């Protein structure tokens, strides 16, 4: 297939988001044998600023996408948080390419009101939206012309290249990077309790209580300097929802602590992740692995290998391909393959 993938490649950050999921899906489609044309809508919109045309950026990006599709003639249009692209532009592209299918890939949580609005907007013009949540709430967005399905946060062996399980001399015991978190929030309270209950653990909680936030290679360097990682989401009641840190932690070989309430224990086992029900169990398991580093290495290796085997960029891309072509997927993937329609 010919695929146009529209998303925030964030060129203005000069490579600092080299691990972004949109890049992994691009790699996955290409490795599956498809020709992919990438289009960074936000970067193209910013180009007009260089020309002194400050108000026309969004319109310019939409015009450029239409021109690209007119020349490239894609079979599949994939929109990954392509917020600059209007529904009218998608309608125009459908008119130009009547047989073209339109997929949306959405990485954000359903508990974010702005993301709910994003899904509803694109539901007017997309065939299927793939979301990193897998529960019945997806039914709320179904229309006669729009379906929804789960998609995991993929790991990519060319991006998640670290093998933290192989080391035993890392600087930090437990790593967690959050955007900005204070001790007054639920996530902040959990981080504070871990530091208090397990003072012997060398914790690296970036972004917590005004500590330095990380991006780019600094982020991966901090992962490399750690033994274990805490996959900390704002709300674990949404089945299988996780931010992409899960792929970055497991994909790079950390022993990952995952809340059992997230539902990931239905896909992975205690031989692959360190599941916990509450903070006391998290603290107990952390103490155990501090004293049993060989077990930490063994389980982290298992988790790393299984995540790369069942949640990799090629499988995630292939799943989108099969759903969009109406091909059978039942039982072919480790994750739920229900398409809500």
Task: Write up this protein.
The protein has 341 residues and is an alpha/beta fold. It folds into two domains: 2-154 and 312-340, Response regulator (Rossmann fold); 164-310, 3-Layer(aba) Sandwich (Rossmann fold). The protein has helices at residues 21-31, 41-50, 57-72, 87-96, 113-123, 186-197, 216-224, 245-251, 279-291, 293-310, 313-325, and strands at 2-7, 35-40, 76-80, 101-106, 128-131, 147-150, 172-181, 203-208, 226-231, 255-259, 274-276, 339-340. The strands form two sheets. A seven-stranded mixed beta sheet has the order 2-1-3-4-5-6-12, with helices on both faces. Strands 8-7-9-10-11 form a five-stranded parallel beta sheet, sandwiched between helices. β4, α5 (113-123) and β5 (128-131) form a beta-alpha-beta unit. α1 (21-31) crosses α11 (313-325), α3 (57-72) runs parallel beside α4 and α6 (186-197) crosses α9. The longest helix is centred in the C-terminal third of the chain and has 18 residues, at 293-310. The protein is globular and about 65 Å long. The chain starts with a strand and ends with a strand.
Topology:
Blueprint: E1 2-7, H1 21-31, E2 35-40, H2 41-50, H3 57-72, E3 76-80, H4 87-96, E4 101-106, H5 113-123, E5 128-131, E6 147-150, E7 172-181, H6 186-197, E8 203-208, H7 216-224, E9 226-231, H8 245-251, E10 255-259, E11 274-276, H9 279-291, H10 293-310, H11 313-325, E12 339-340
Parallel strand pairs: 1-2, 1-3, 3-4, 4-5, 5-6, 7-8, 7-9, 9-10, 10-11
Antiparallel strand pairs: 6-12
Helix pairs in contact: 1-11, 2-3, 3-4, 6-9
């Amino acid at each position: 297939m010919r695929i146009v993938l529209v998303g925030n490649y964030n060129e203005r950050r000069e490579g600092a988001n080299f691990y972004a999921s949109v890049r992994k899906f691009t790699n996955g489609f290409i490795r599956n044998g498809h020709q992919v044309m990438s289009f960074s809508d936000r970067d193209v919109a910013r180009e007009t600023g260089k020309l002194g045309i400050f108000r026309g950026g969004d319109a310019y990006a939409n015009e450029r996408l239409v021109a690209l599709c007119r020349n490239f003639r894609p079979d599949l249009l994939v929109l990954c948080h392509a917020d600059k692209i209007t529904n009218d532009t998608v309608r125009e592209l459908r008119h130009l390419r009547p047989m073209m299918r339109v997929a949306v890939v959405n990485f954000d949580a359903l508990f974010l009101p702005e993301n709910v609005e994003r899904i509803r907007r694109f539901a007017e013009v997309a065939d299927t939206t793939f979301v990193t949540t897998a529960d019945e709430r997806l039914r709320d967005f179904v229309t006669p012309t729009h379906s929804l399905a789960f998609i995991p946060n993929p790991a990519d062996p060319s991006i998640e290249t670290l093998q933290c399980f192989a080391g035993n001399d890392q600087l930090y015991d437990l790593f967690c990077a959050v955007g900005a978190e204070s001790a007054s929030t639920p996530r902040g309270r959990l981080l504070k309790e871990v530091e208090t209950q397990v003072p012997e653990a060398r914790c690296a909680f970036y972004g917590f209580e005004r500590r330095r936030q990380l991006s780019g290679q600094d982020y991966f360097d901090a992962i490399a300097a750690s033994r274990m990682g805490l996959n900390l989401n704002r709300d674990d009641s949404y089945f299988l929802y996780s931010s992409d840190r899960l792929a970055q932690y497991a994909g790079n070989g950390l022993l990952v602590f995952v809340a059992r309430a997230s539902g990931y224990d239905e896909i992975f086992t205690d031989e692959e992740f360190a599941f916990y029900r509450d903070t006391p169990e998290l603290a107990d398991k952390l103490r155990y692995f501090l004293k049993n580093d060989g077990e930490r290495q063994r389980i982290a290796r298992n988790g790393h290998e299984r995540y790369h085997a069942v949640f990799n960029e090629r499988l995630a891309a292939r799943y989108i391909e099969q759903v969009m072509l109406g091909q059978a997927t039942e039982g072919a993937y480790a994750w739920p393959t229900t398409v809500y329609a």
